[in-house]
Amino acid sequence: QPANSPQRVTSPQHQPNSSTTEPRDAAALTALGEKYARGDGVPKDPVRAVELFRKAANQGFAAAINDLGVMYANGEGVGQSYSEALSLYRVAAERGSPQANANLGNAYEIGQGVTKNYNEALAWYRKSADLGHIGAKQRIAVIEKVLNQQSQTPQMNVAMEMKARSLARSEGCDIASINNVQPPEGSHFSY
Question: What pTM does this model have?
Fold first, then answer.
């Protein structure tokens, strides 16, 4: 999967006694759903995966709620809906899912279903990292670097403007700001 796509967490493995036996417990339903979602040992069947995730999600199992969100985000077995995915991620995050927190961080980082917001992404990734998610820790470092660079850009613009004003004054020009500089009368610019 691409680095910035929502992720499922692999649940504890479940080996049903026969191929027609469906587990009842949420962790086993989720594990079986993940097998159908990936085609791991069974034919790939996203619709069946969604059914299994829904059954486990109805039991309040955070990993299943997150996985159902992933199916909505990717449009697998259901119509694609970022808003539904985000709602499910939030519920799973409230129930302590590190992956759901990371998926929310990812959504805000790339602007998937929400307005891109690095500060919001950072907050969700921090929650995920606090719950032990390794990938979230890596994203925190990347986003902090981006935010640090963004915070320095306005300072660099001010420094460049001050330098331009100083140079303009030394050349005998009187300007209020480099943003207000107009070409001399009679000049024509073309592209």
Answer: 0.70
